[in-house]
Amino acid sequence: MDQNHVLEAFRLEAREFTKAVSGLSETEWDRPTRCEPWSVRELLGHVRVVIAWLPQMLDSPAPDSAEVTAVGYYRPDDRFSPQTNAARVDLARNHAAECANGATLADDFAATWQRVDRLCRDQAENRVVRTRHGDAMLLSEFLITRVVEVAVHGLDVADALGREPWLTTEAGLLVRQLLLGPGQLDAARELGWDEPTFLRKATGRAALDATESARVERLGIQWLTLG
Fold this sequence. Notes:
- The protein has 227 residues and is mainly α.
- It is built from 12 helices and 2 strands.
- It has a two-stranded antiparallel sheet with strand order 1-2.
- It comes from Streptomyces lonegramiae.
């Protein structure tokens, strides 16, 4: 997928996320999320951490060729082991704890994604990076996974705060395309779900009732499991 297109989706979604958490009270920052054991502040700490990997990746030597796509990035291996998940939880909590308050965390998140946006704009379309898991990926493919982080966890934060989701059209469509693949997009439209509902259902954040399960099966829809 075109790198500029993916970067634009990342930029727009991260900008809306920043707007949404600006001005939260400390009580709101401490609300629990569905991503246990994280609070709102710790979940934003996680999103900031996974975006902050990029500058170091761009500073490192580029692999000769890409070997893994965004779909392959989510294959079930050690990256989703209990030990890795525990480390992921601790990293997010530690970063959130380093910020004096929620406003400082929100500012740090904004500064981090804006820096990543600037750095990525200067990269060649065929730039290859190596992830912390060892995957050699096109930068555009890795950026898709960062859009997933910002978009899906944005839904988690919106739900924790009791707000309407701010999911952008660009990010919602990009994540839908990743989860379904191009061959299933038309069938999925027959479900009649808006983008937030689709992402909640496809990622297990909202359960399918019996009628929905039957329609998904009838339409032959299968979506990617994120971890």
